From TrEMBL:
Residues 1-60 are annotated as: Disordered. It comes from Acidithrix ferrooxidans. This is Integrase catalytic domain-containing protein. Residues 1-14, 27-40 have a biased composition (Basic and acidic residues). It comes from the Bacteria.
């Protein structure tokens, strides 16, 4: 049971708290983390209609790009956290 609680609080990113761990939220670490994510995603929607496609398709594409970028950042954070524990 303690392994589950450790994972739930320290590794699992919760959708209800912007995909950070409860530990990150309680320690305040989430502020810097969310700022880095916001900066990384900020440039991805510079010109949503640059390819001449419809706005709806462009916005869907941007959302997908943001999601993919979010996943990459999350994986990097998890890898770094794993390195710190070793």
């Amino acid at each position: 049971m303690s392994e589950f609680v450790d994972h739930y609080n320290n590794d699992h990113q919760h959708s209800g708290i912007k995909f950070v761990t409860p530990q990150q939220a309680h320690s305040g670490e989430h502020i810097e983390l969310l700022n880095r994510r916001r900066e990384a995603v900020g440039g991805s929607n510079a010109n949503p209609n640059q390819d001449g496609g419809s706005r709806a398709n462009a916005e869907t594409g941007i959302q997908y790009q943001r999601y993919q970028l979010f996943l990459r950042i999350s994986r990097l954070e998890m890898d770094q956290k794993g390195d710190e524990r070793r």
